[in-house]
């Protein structure tokens, strides 16, 4: 890098939501940090359309939906964002959709892209009818992300150009102190860039894990169907035959999507009865689905209401000050012993803040009196239990996180049918509670849960948690617990599940699911201590959860080659008691630069963002007014990129054949 007058070049591998968010922040910060007369060429490399990328591409089943309400999805900073760069508010998905029905603001800001109607009439029809509290299809989210991308382009100054290369980046080479060469599939000449950002998003694996390979080999030997972890929209579900018994391992969002595709996707439908319940009308092409998991119950339904009281002031008990106090000590931190009590107290604060403000008739004292006592007490102290019991008479209004975590612990049934009835009642009660604003304290807890989730990356990055706490706590129990409470499906999906259960299409297996194989019968087996002595034999097995990141087995050719060359590293957390290999790409906590073992530290010209990295809890889009960690990181990285590129740059590769200037 030597000529400060030549154009600067940035290559971004991946053009999905994360890259789009970064581009929006680059556009927002150019006015302050980029000279008007300087040229900056940005190359986006992705075989999928910029904006939605692979996961949110428009070409997927219209049956698949988001698990967030339209008003809870945004790609823009707002008044809650604590960033160095300028806040540039923009419409949430709900606000953007309202423009197609004439309900949005009259004149969009000048920097926004024109609101062009999607070409797909079904998507346009959904946008026009979409209410803020609806759960949109993924294809609607795809249209929103496409527009956000075009809005980011429109906000760039004329000196900044963006070129999309509709292909795959296969490798990146170049010295740490020189230009980087990004090699593209099907192109003889690489792109040359000053800096490279890796933003590939969620990735699958090219080589299955050992357990999955063994199960696939069993399936081949016996001509059975086996599906390893896969993204639902990409999964080939043509294998299971009508009426075939299929075990699904996993009870989260992937299970919901796969079930939709195997039922409605095969021609089934639902009829609403006079009492509001649903009846499933089978097409006759459905398999019989047996589902179980560690907890044995589906993820909690998303709430279908808004806060009834004021928004809780978060963080309160688990924010920078509390984390700083934890880090002030000198001993290793155990998640369960040292950190979880503060996390739980924060979640409880959100719960009770909403209960006391929105439903004071169900409490015995004022919020100020409760809050003063609550602040002084530890979450697991007898005093806290006494305070809650005295202040909240109805146990149904109290927050019991341990009971929520494993609802089937210690519960057994003598026969499968008895368990079916029990779990249907459990699901029905959960849906009813999550749709009743009288229980809006659950939403207060949910918002606090999000706040906790956003605070944890700083603690993990400090290196003070024990290796076992990261492995079994953060990446194990906590990730599952958070998803179970906060990332569940819309309520209507669980009502559909009840209808499928009553129709005999879905059968519940129980908790602590164990999968085996029976060589003599050529079947997969499924057992659970929830129904002792009961074994299900099936001729098909589906892993109903998403692929876990595994850097050594990733499907991404660029990451795979860098890893094999020793130019990037898997995160390894080790102490005398345990070693944890997370499968995630190690980046520096401060600036997201790739850790290069050959350099002994961060690579000065390579940055990585998003899902494959160990910057945990940094999602590409977020709920409005939550000071989203992803937006904070995007802003910091965008500013650092502009400063570095503006200091002294060189480039010798302009757009090539097969690329599209945008």
Defining traits:
662 residues, alpha/beta, seven-stranded mixed beta sheet, five-stranded parallel beta sheet, 22 strands, globular, HpyO/CreE_NAD-binding, L-asp_N-monooxygenase_NS-form, Adenylate cyclase
Describe this structure as you would to a colleague.
By secondary structure, this protein is an alpha/beta fold. The protein has 17 helices and 22 strands. α1 runs parallel beside α4 (138-155), α1 packs across α17 and α12 packs antiparallel against α15 (491-502). This is Adenylate cyclase. Pfam families: NAD_binding_9. InterPro entries: HpyO/CreE_NAD-binding (IPR038732), L-asp_N-monooxygenase_NS-form (IPR052189). Residues 11-202 form the FAD-dependent urate hydroxylase HpyO/Asp monooxygenase CreE-like FAD/NAD(P)-binding domain.
Query: Largest sheet, order of strands side by side?
Result: 20-21-7-1-2-3-22
Strand content: 15-25%
Distance separating the two termini: 26 Å
State the low-pLDDT regions, or none.
106-110, 649-658
Roughly how much helix do the residues carry, as a percent range? 25-40%
User: What is the helix tally?
Assistant: 17
Number of strands: 22
The biggest beta sheet reads: 7 strands, mixed
Structural class: alpha/beta
Shape: globular
The chain-level mean pLDDT equals 94
| Radius of gyration, in angstroms, nearest whole number | 26 Å
